[in-house]
Amino acid sequence: MSDISRRLDKRNRAEISENIDFTLEKEKQDGLGRTRIERQNYKAILIVDDEPDITYTLKLALENNNERYKVSTYNNPLTLLSEFMANDCDLLLVDINMPFMNGFELCKRILEIDLNVRICFMSTGEVNLNALRDIYPKISVGCFIKKPILIKNLIKMVEEELD
């Protein structure tokens, strides 16, 4: 390849690279704009429970009941914590008893990221809400879901929290 060809080829690659960077940035900005608009059209719900069957069942129940619900599930509280972003969630359904981090500790950390997220705790056992408020005064318990729960009752509780 001649010296002139190499210089032209190098310049063409630089221009192509700049065009790709510009296009990717434009798509990213357009995507952010779409996300904000689309975000107004649905309610984002996150479900965290160490039992995959439970998260899957609750996700199906909520999404099948209301097409405006976008439900994401996590079976590990540490994964949710590493991916959670402020203003990305309208309602958080959290199991209390999980490995690595209990639901209260998780919510305490989540509230450090986003104070506006609504939280519903879930458990198969009874919970003393007064004791809970004493231990975690900054956590606002929106609702408490005792598992197992009928789907119609779950939907009613979620709708009440999101209104």
Report what the structure shows:
The protein has 163 residues and is of the alpha/beta class. The protein folds into 2 domains: 41 residues; 120 residues, 3-Layer(aba) Sandwich (Rossmann fold). The protein has a 5-stranded parallel sheet with strand order 2-1-3-4-5, sandwiched between helices. The radius of gyration is 22 Å and the shape is globular. It starts with a helix and ends with a helix. About 7% of the residues have low confidence.
| Span of the ends, CA to CA | 68 Å
Counting structural domains, the number is 2
The biggest sheet, with number of strands, parallel, antiparallel or mixed sense and barrel status, is:
5 strands, parallel
On the 0 to 100 scale, the average pLDDT is 80
Number of DSSP-assigned strands? 5
As for the CATH topology of the largest domain, it is: Rossmann fold
Going by CATH, the homologous superfamily of the largest domain would be: Response regulator
CATH C-level label of the largest domain:
Alpha Beta
> Structural class, please?
alpha/beta
What's the Cα radius of gyration? 22 Å
β-sheet strand percentage: 15-25%
- Proportion of helical residues: 40-55%
CATH architectural type of the largest domain:
3-Layer(aba) Sandwich
- Unreliable stretches covering 5 or more consecutive residues: 26-37
* N-to-C series of helices and strands: HEHEHEHEHEH
Strand order of the largest sheet: 2-1-3-4-5
Approximate shape: globular
Continuous helix count? 6
